[in-house]
């Protein structure tokens, strides 16, 4: 290895609204999407590589993502298969704290984690929403997420009866 | 008592009466997430929580409870080779349609969601009984089971070695197949039982079916299909006395009715029977039901010969399909009649003096004049109505049109008729601009308008307070 080359080179990414962010190769490789891109150009070319454009992530969200990947760059990341087998619900307190954000930011984070293919971050953020839903009544969920109640009482009743209407005969 | 036979007759009335309610646009940011990611979120929920969120709005209900969505998701998983017990979390899916040969691949899924499944429709061909039994054991809350397994391969399987399922109650249990395969259900109970014997099953031994019926205590509706005279079903006294009281009895391709023991079997239900359905060429069997005091509804299919000792005065509700015999003399007291096929001589219908409610599909109604009929329902796709529409002799108060392709005549009908309709119901039809206009112009003639599962040509439709309008599941073309 070239002695002058830093072990974790700088990489730049550009958000959809044109803001450039600098982070490190190790961090950005947590994104499966970017990892695939970099593997195609070969690691030797990383230093000469220009900033990576991320058309589907805005600057506010990208900032949050970078904060997360930089914190976790030295941790071994589970694959999406491993995440699916995950049964324990242990969450790193740092992550717990990190996920304290308003819902709009959280939705953007989910979309970004999905696009960038960061399984652990996707798991954390979708799980966060699921935890908000858990043990709440439909009405509580509606006010939490601003969902309009588009059912009529008769429709609700009909849906509940749906499974019984073929009973006769 | 529902008297409908085909699925399009099933009368699921939502009568929502959402008079002027506009369609609600969901604008909350959560709706910007694509279905795939919403699925990811819902995957973490236990069934109670997923039912809570499914009740919040229609889209989430569809995502959580709709079988097509489940299959869509499953397809994705199959394509990406990711099928496993992880894919569905604990979301509640209650209805599964599946092909037996593929069932084994669903094992992991059934381990995960089996408790939630209440309806299983299974084509068991190519499936071993022991596999079926394992699957059923994974679904302790099943209430509706429909099973077809008349595959010869299965017949050769040594089913004798398989123990029956532990005790179970099915609300509806539909079985078509061999007596031998039936063995695993011997300890089960059912409320509605539809048994179609495998016509290839030449063992002429219906011991397992008999044992099953003998044990039933909650059975209310029974269908027996494909029993020849040689079948041992009623050859002995086993079923002369049973513990259940049938309300509904249906025979299809059933020749065993001539057996004396069968007559003793039906005598068990003398007080309880209200509905009888026969798919027979011969009517003599009807004589056996003459003294049944509560039998009001009779459904006849493919009856070519109808010569009764005396009129069936007790019948109030008649359903016919492919019956080409004079009917009015035999059933003088019917008030409601459903005709499920094309009837060559609609004039026959005229002779029913007390008929109030007529349901017809594919009938030429040009000559139909029945002043007694107050309710008329058209159903089916090949409805014929030559111009001009002659309905003048009728006094219809409720007109229901369902799944009819050609409804051009309705324009003229609405314009010409002068009495007010209590109800106009349109289900599963295309409402073009002209018809929309006609309805709008004649709205004072319609007390209540129901539009369900319809396609509209023009988006703007009468949604006004001066008409009692029920709108449901419509789409704009």
UniProtKB/TrEMBL annotation, chain A:
Key word Manganese present: no
InterPro entries: SKP1, SKP1-like, SKP1-like_dim_sf, SKP1/BTB/POZ_sf, Skp1_comp_dimer, Skp1_comp_POZ
Gene3D superfamilies: Potassium Channel Kv1.1, Chain A (3.30.710.10)
SMART domains for the chain: Skp1
Residue span, SKP1 component dimerisation domain: 120-166
Keyword Hydrolase: no
Alphabetical UniProt keywords: Ubl conjugation pathway
Pathway(s) where this gene product acts: Protein modification; protein ubiquitination
Highest taxon of source: Eukaryota
Domain SKP1 component POZ as annotated: residue spans: 11-74
Record-stated family: Belongs to the SKP1 family.
Protein name (database record): Skp1-related protein
From TrEMBL, chain B:
SMART domains according to UniProt: FBOX
Domain F-box: 27-74
SUPFAM superfamilies reported in the protein's UniProt record: F-box domain (SSF81383), RNI-like (SSF52047)
Transmembrane segments: none
Listed Pfam families: F-box-like (PF12937)
Name this protein carries in UniProt: F-box domain-containing protein
């Amino acid at each position: 290895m070239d002695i002058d080359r830093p072990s974790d080179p700088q990489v730049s990414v550009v958000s959809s609204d044109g803001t450039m962010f600098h982070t490190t190769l190790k961090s950005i490789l947590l994104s499966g999407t970017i990892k695939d891109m970099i593997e195609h150009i070969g690691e030797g070319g990383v230093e000469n590589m220009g900033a990576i454009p991320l058309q589907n992530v805005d600057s506010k969200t990208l900032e949050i993502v970078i904060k997360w990947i930089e914190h976790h760059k030295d941790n071994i990341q589970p694959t999406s298969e491993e995440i699916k087998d995950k049964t324990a619900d242990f969450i790193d307190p740092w992550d717990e704290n990190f996920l304290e954000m308003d819902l709009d930011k959280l939705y953007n984070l989910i979309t970004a984690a999905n696009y960038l293919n960061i399984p652990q971050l996707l798991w954390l953020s979708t799980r966060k929403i699921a935890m908000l839903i858990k043990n709440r009544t439909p009405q509580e969920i509606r006010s939490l997420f601003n969902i309009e109640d588009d059912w009529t009482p008769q429709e609700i009743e009909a849906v509940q009866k749906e499974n019984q209407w073929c009973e006769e005969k | 008592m529902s008297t409908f036979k085909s699925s399009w007759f099933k009368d699921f009335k939502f009568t929502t009466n959402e008079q002027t309610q506009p369609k609600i646009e969901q604008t909350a940011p959560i709706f910007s997430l694509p279905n795939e990611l919403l699925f990811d979120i819902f995957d973490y929920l236990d069934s109670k929580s997923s039912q809570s969120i499914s009740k919040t709005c229609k889209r989430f209900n569809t995502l959580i409870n709709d079988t097509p969505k489940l299959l869509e998701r499953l397809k994705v998983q199959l394509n990406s080779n990711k099928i496993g017990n992880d894919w569905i979390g604990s979301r509640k899916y209650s209805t599964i349609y599946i092909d037996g040969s593929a069932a084994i691949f669903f094992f992991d899924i059934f381990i995960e969601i089996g408790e939630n499944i209440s309806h299983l429709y299974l084509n068991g061909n190519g499936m071993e009984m022991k596999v079926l039994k394992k699957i059923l054991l994974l679904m302790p809350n099943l209430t509706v089971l429909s099973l077809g397994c008349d595959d010869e391969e299965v017949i050769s399987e040594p089913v004798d070695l398989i123990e029956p399922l532990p005790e179970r109650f099915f609300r509806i249990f539909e079985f078509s197949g061999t007596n031998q395969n039936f063995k695993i259900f011997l300890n089960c109970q059912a409320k509605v039982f539809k048994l179609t014997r495998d016509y290839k099953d030449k063992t002429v031994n219906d011991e397992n079916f008999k044992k099953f019926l003998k044990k039933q205590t909650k059975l209310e509706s029974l269908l027996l299909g494909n029993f020849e005279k040689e079948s041992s079903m009623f050859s002995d006294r086993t079923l002369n006395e049973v513990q259940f009281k049938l309300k509904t009895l249906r025979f299809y391709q059933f020749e065993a009715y001539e057996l004396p023991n069968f007559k003793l079997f039906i005598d068990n239900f003398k007080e309880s029977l209200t509905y009888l359905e026969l798919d027979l060429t011969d009517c003599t069997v009807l004589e056996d039901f003459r003294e049944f005091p509560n039998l009001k509804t009779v459904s006849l299919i493919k009856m070519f010969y109808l010569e009764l000792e005396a009129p069936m005065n007790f019948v109030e509700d008649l359903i016919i399909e492919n019956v080409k015999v004079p009917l009015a003399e035999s059933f003088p007291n019917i008030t409601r009649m459903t005709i499920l096929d094309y009837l060559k001589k609609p004039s026959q219908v005229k002779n029913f003096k007390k008929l109030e409610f007529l349901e017809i599909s594919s009938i030429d109604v040009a000559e139909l004049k029945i002043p007694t009929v107050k309710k008329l329902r058209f159903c089916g796709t090949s409805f014929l109505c030559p111009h001009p529409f002659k309905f003048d002799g009728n006094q219809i108060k409720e007109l229901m049109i369902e799944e009819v392709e050609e409804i051009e005549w309705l324009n003229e009908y609405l314009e010409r008729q002068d009495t007010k309709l209590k109800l106009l119901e349109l289900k599963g039809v295309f409402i073009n601009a002209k018809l929309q206009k006609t309805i709008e112009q004649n709205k004072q003639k319609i007390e209540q308008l129901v539009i369900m599962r319809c396609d509209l040509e023009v988006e703007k439709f009468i949604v006004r307070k001066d008409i009692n309008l029920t709108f449901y599941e419509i789409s704009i073309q």
